[in-house]
């Protein structure tokens, strides 16, 4: 996937689904998704300074503990990512981590990740777990460290700068053979959470697995996401973010923008390429161009948010 | 009494034969092991395994990606099984046991215990 191809097909990308490239900045204005700037080029060390005024930065799939060929130094690439964020001319108000903090849910992996995150200049960190964070036998390691915000449920909401943020968990309650699941309890909680909120409130929803079906054979979707979308449809600006697939895929549907973030650890193959969604080994010089963050800014408060993807090299 | 002695002999012969098979065909031992489920290319192989009650089944992962094994009924749940690691569980009672990889829930399999 080259960035050139991505840029060439930009118009198509806006209509349906596409793979974004580094440095593409999108604005959602009046329900119309449009590129407003192509400011941040890959391999541009000043990229961080040109990101503008971010509302928040999304980090995803740090996979601390991974040590295979696809990236033997995930600590190093996370360090580069943190340096990139810390080097932004204006610090984001908050950081969102969309899961797979660790690779194997081991206590030492969580401890190291937390230690590394503590170096972020922006100290407000909001997380959701990925399925790699919940493989310990008792499913407690993640919640012991990050469960407070959600009272150990995994889902919660908060407000910042007039934007309503909703964190969802879709990596528990798997149906065998199926996709991710939100579940009736979480959906009922969300209905109550959104009730009484004005349609003009910008909403940012984030979870680990995609909240729309990208590729069912690999489980890249959430089985009961339709019920979520019914609740969100009335809002004028909805931004739905996730990680999990280690590459950028996006879709616009009415007032909703769906966007997946890159990993900071290793890329994965495009949908359906190879036996499954495992680590993709690329030449060493290409790796850093396939890892990065998503930055979200308010363009025209309160109705439009802009998304920008930046790679670490 | 005689029958019992005969049974013991039969068991001894069976065990000896199994040992002989295992010892004399080391190259196929891993894949033909009747109590091992290989976890490879995001699939369980075989997808359905039949064993005798009291058998210990081992899941062996050779993918670069970790997998796990979670019983549909909650009977067993492995931690993450990383590359070249394995997980074992002893099945005492006859029955049909379905399991899935909760990291990749498309991966499902069955152990039939006789």
Percentage beta strand of chain A: 15-25%
Walk across the major sheet of chain B and give the strand order. Answer: 2-1-4-6
The side-by-side strand order for the widest beta sheet of chain A comes to 1-11-12-10-9-8-7
Report the order of strands and helices of chain B. Answer: HHEEEEEEEE
State the helical fraction of chain B.
25-40%
- Please report which band the strand proportion of chain B falls in: under 5%, 5-15%, 15-25%, 25-35%, 35-45% or over 45%: 25-35%
If you average the pLDDT of chain A, what whole number results? 83
For the sheet with most strands of chain B, the description reads:
4 strands, mixed
Helical proportion of chain A, percent range: 10-25%
* Mean pLDDT figure of chain B: 81
Main beta-sheet annotation of chain A? 7 strands, mixed
Shape of chain B: globular
Termini distance of chain A? 16 Å
Counting helices, strands and paired strands, the structural category of chain B is alpha/beta
The two chains with the largest interface, and their residue counts, are: A-B, 26 and 23 residues
**Helix run count of chain B:** 2
Number of DSSP helical runs of chain A: 8
Question: How many E strands of chain A?
Answer: 14
């Amino acid at each position: 996937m080259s960035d050139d191809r991505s840029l060439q097909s930009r118009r198509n990308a806006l209509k349906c689904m596409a793979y974004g490239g580094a440095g593409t900045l999108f604005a959602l204005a009046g329900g119309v998704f449009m590129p407003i700037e192509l400011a941040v080029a890959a391999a541009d060390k000043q990229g961080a300074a040109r990101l503008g005024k971010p509302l928040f930065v999304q980090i995803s799939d740090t996979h601390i503990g991974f040590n295979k060929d696809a990236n033997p130094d995930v600590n190093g690439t996370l360090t580069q990512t943190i340096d990139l964020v810390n080097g932004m001319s204006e610090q984001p108000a908050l950081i969102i981590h969309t899961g797979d903090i660790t690779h194997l849910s081991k206590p030492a992996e969580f401890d190291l990740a937390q230690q590394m995150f503590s170096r972020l200049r922006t100290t407000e960190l909001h997380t959701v777990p990925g399925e790699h964070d919940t493989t310990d036998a008792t499913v407690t390691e993640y919640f012991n460290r990050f469960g407070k915000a959600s009272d150990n449920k995994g889902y919660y909401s908060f407000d910042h700068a007039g934007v309503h943020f909703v964190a969802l968990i879709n990596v528990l309650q798997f149906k065998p053979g199926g996709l991710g699941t939100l579940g009736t309890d979480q959906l009922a909680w969300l209905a109550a959470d959104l009730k009484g909120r004005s349609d003009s409130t910008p909403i940012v929803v984030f979870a680990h697995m995609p909240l729309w079906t990208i590729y069912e054979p690999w489980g890249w979707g959430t089985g009961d996401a339709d019920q979520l979308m019914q609740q969100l449809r009335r809002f004028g600006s909805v931004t739905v973010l996730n990680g999990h697939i280690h590459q950028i895929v996006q879709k616009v549907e009415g007032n909703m923008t769906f966007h997946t973030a890159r990993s900071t650890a290793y890329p994965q193959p495009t949908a359906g390429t190879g036996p499954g969604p495992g680590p993709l080994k690329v030449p060493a010089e290409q790796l850093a161009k396939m890892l990065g963050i998503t930055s979200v800014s308010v363009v025209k408060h309160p109705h439009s948010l802009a998304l920008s993807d930046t790679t670490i090299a | 009494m005689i029958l019992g002695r005969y049974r013991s002999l039969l068991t001894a012969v069976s065990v000896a034969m199994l040992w002989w098979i295992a010892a004399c065909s080391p190259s196929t031992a891993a894949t033909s092991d009747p109590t091992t489920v290989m976890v490879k290319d995001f699939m369980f192989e075989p997808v359905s395994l039949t064993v005798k009650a009291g058998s210990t089944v081992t899941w062996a992962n050779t993918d670069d990606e970790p997998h796990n094994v979670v019983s549909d009924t909650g009977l067993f749940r492995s931690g993450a099984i990383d590359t070249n690691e394995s997980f074992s569980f002893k099945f005492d009672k006859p029955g049909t046991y379905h399991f899935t990889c909760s990291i990749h829930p498309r991966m499902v399999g069955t152990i039939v215990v006789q």
